[in-house]
User: Fold these one by one.
Assistant:
Number 1:
Amino acid sequence: MSTATADQESVQIRRGLPWYLLLWRDKFAFASAIWFVLLLSFVLLGPAFLNETAIRLDLSARNAAPGFEHGWLYIFGADPLGRPLLPRLMVGARNTLAIAGSAVLIALTVGGILGMIAGYLGGLVGAAIMRLADVISSFPSLLLALVVLYILEPHVMNIVIVLAITRTAIYLRVTRAEVLELRERVFVDAARSLGGSSTHILRTHIAPMIAPMLATIMTVDFASVMLAESALSFLGIGIQPPEITWGLMVSQGRNYLTQAWWLAFIPGLAITLTALSANLLSSWLRTLADPVQRWRLEAPKVEKAAK
Amino acid sequence: MLRYIGRRAFQSAIGLLILFIAVFFLARLTGDPAKLMLPINADEALIQEFRVREGLDKPVAEQFVRYMGNVLQGDFGHSMRRNVSALDLVLTAYPVTLQLAFITMAIVITAACVVGSLAAYRPGSPLDRAATVTSLATASSPDFWVAITAILLFAVTLRWLPTSGYGLDIKYWILPVGVLFLRPFGMLVQVVRASMINALSSAFVKTARVKGMSEGRIIFVHALRNAFLPIITVAGDQMVGMLNGLVIIETIFGFPGIGKLMIDAVSARDFPVVQASILVTAIAIFTLFIVIDLIYVALDPRIRHT
């Protein structure tokens, strides 16, 4: 249906618009991009300039409310030790983003590859991989985290590994389910009868078909991994103070919820905004990559006329 | 089909055994319960007595053999902290988690299918934009943070609902179910929408339209059924996460569920309770996996399990 509309209105569509114009066409995605640029500058500049202020105690500003009373660094208030919230947020951004990002990438790579093998080959190998996935996902992530972090130490890299292991199964299962269906399609049969090897078929014919589905899950997963990290911190087994992450700030602020709501609220808001921005950007990217949908960005006015 | 179920059950049993062995030995790597449970100034004799009583003085392999023997006779041992059967503790806690999980998932799947399908019907329409942004926002909100913010707003400031507690009264369930609903809902709406856009552009939908079928029937009967595979996969994974215990929600809202029991047992190194709760949750989860695979077959006859 959408293709038909696109054909009728194609006169007005301008091809080859630069990407930043296409980004501007989607206002939500544009706002998200700005948020990420802001975050990146936090990540790059924050630690260099603000490490000192993020841990400086100022007992006169204990639980200071958001405002300008104690200077601009205290615009979001201060924690029970009088450490200003804004620099802590900036320093925490780096840990939070790096942990979630690397965990998701590892889970996607491992889960995607294993899922394609399980779905395409089936048989004994497939069954073995799927039972392995069953074991992993029925293994309580908390116990896994506890074991890994007690034996090794609660170092950033180990937390990434724990988070990646717990998220692998979903990519594995989604990939397998899709491949199970795709391998019965005619174009796969055609590729096979033309002599395409399994790796060739998986890479050039099947992978592009499942990529959008995986991308949808991946970006939403980025949020849940950030949350999982904060859950580990909440239970006292994640990143340990004096390291700073947003999740840790939320859990620390929880104890002062009734006296100083901003301590938990603002870092949580930062997590939410970041996750939301990632999702909005990915939805824009998906529209951009989809030939059936792309015209909506290239001709936004047509969209209104077509209704 | 029965043979398939039988074989899956057998494979699951092997998986369970691997999990069980792994848990037994890994749990013992995390620390010594004697040091945690006895007072800090307890002398050697007391510690030794505790170890002998709990059978911790034997080599780990011997402990394992003895434990497996007892389990096969249905004896999961006693909690080290309280003199209660470990299995009893688990079986009283699990229904709480199951109720919470099933109620929430039933609402999530229904709501996500309706909202996702309507959004997919006209991609790019205001309804679609609204549904997409809302679902992205709920999927992006950390339940941990939403829970404490909701408590602050509805329980502390407005005093409409209790801050925490467990009971039959619906007022205890509104906040936990409401908070738990958000993220799976947001995630599922995305999947429903993507899958439905795909299904609605298929030839069979055009055929149905040509035959003069009502749009409602096309969307919710024919397209939705064909779009259901990825939906089931993701919903199933969310359900698995819930069956493993809703630690955050149960801790924050004071629900005596399996998640809270497990985290308490793990941090106190109460091994019998840890093992019993993991075994029971794993059985539930493996059963769910088999059910999901059967649903695949029921929905799409092209998939055959032999």
Number 2:
Amino acid sequence: MIQEPFAIGASPLHQTDPRLKIILATAYSFLVAVLQGFPALLTALVLSIALVAVARLDSRALFRRLGLANGLILFLWVLLPFTFPGKPLASIGPFALSLEGVRFCAQITLKSNAIILALIALVATSPIATLGYALHRLHVPAKMVLLLLLTYRYLFVLEQEYERLARAMRMRGFRPQTSLHTYRTYAYLVGMLFVRASARAERVHQAMLCRGFTGRFRTLKTFTLARRDWIWPFAAGCAMSGLIMLEWTTGWH
Amino acid sequence: MALIRLDDISFAYPGRATVLDRADLTLREGERIGLMGPNGAGKTTLFHLIMGLLKPDSGRIEIFGREVREEKDFESVRRQIGFLFQDADDQLFHPTVLEDVAFGPLNLGKSREEAQLIAMKTLEKLGLERFEERITHRLSGGEKRLVALATVLAMEPKVLLLDEPTAGLDERTKERLTQLLKGFDLTYIIISHELDFLMETTTAVYAMADGRIQWDEEVKLHRHIHGHRHGAYPHAHE
């Protein structure tokens, strides 16, 4: 159900302390999200691509992921240029294309791709479990970390339960059609999954209680910053101040 | 000394018929009890009552010589009694095996280093070396069961409660579990439908019926059905 195509690797980014990667990815995403000028945005995109290159990721999985995100952005291109108020650029039939709309769309496209690429290079290069422990060490509330880790763990169990039910339905000759019977069957299937998930949650909680759980989340995992890790905050500092400078000198404010 | 003593325990799930009806049970140090009984006879319920996951409607539960009533009392019970659940997926909730086995010891207040050491040792004891970094949800059914047992044993319990530990295991894993249990110096109760397994691993087998726990000592002569090719023809066995 959850595939982590980028989590395993031997690149420098895979070996960097995940806490550091989370912090840098967050700071970088916020910065790129507020950039306006095209020189700065294009530079950010180039920086993100460079990060992905450093992470040496499987390009096919990478493009599949980018395709998914850009599919959504495509919708914006269909709608926004025609609805955004501003100077008309061209007109197709009764619809006028506004310069501001096109510019806005281009900004969104550049921003989202730059952020997605950076997140893939920085965050997706750690397994989800490791990210959970890293968030815990970064003092993210234990409840949220547990929620993340338990969701990750039990999604697979739920998927198996879904597969079992769906298989049993097929074995008894169920074929989805456009009929009330089909809708009702699917509703029962979903309902059953909810019932099972909640019973499962109850049992997991009981098992946790039996092993002395009292609400505090404790883990073995510790992270240490290696000396070579220090290059990242330094590089990120330079890159981000560069972006700010660029925005300052070339952006319209 | 009686480690666990249940006196006159009655229990019914809300809106359903009585499961336990004035049941008694005493588990003494060193005893190994097998518990059989039909589905719905209240075997698992009994374990849940001992662990404080359910509260009895009436009766008295004494564990390690002290009466337990409140959630607070059971918190200390849970530190000393290990409960192996029927479904190992309920028990293994961490992404990796080592983290999961260390969870109990960490809850007992051990330091990270101690907990890790205990976890490694426990895995080694069960023949699960090199399982530390394995992803729990990708283990096979048998491996999950053994790792779940490791998570319980890592707390160094005085008593073990095992709920159908052989369910769904193949013969080899079952044999491995049997040998492990026989090798432990532990007091335990095992719920199982497999008499052969109980005869190997326990010293007494009780039956649950009509909400009671009964001790059936009478030896009964019985026949076994056995099958083989050409079995339809008259023949003799030595």
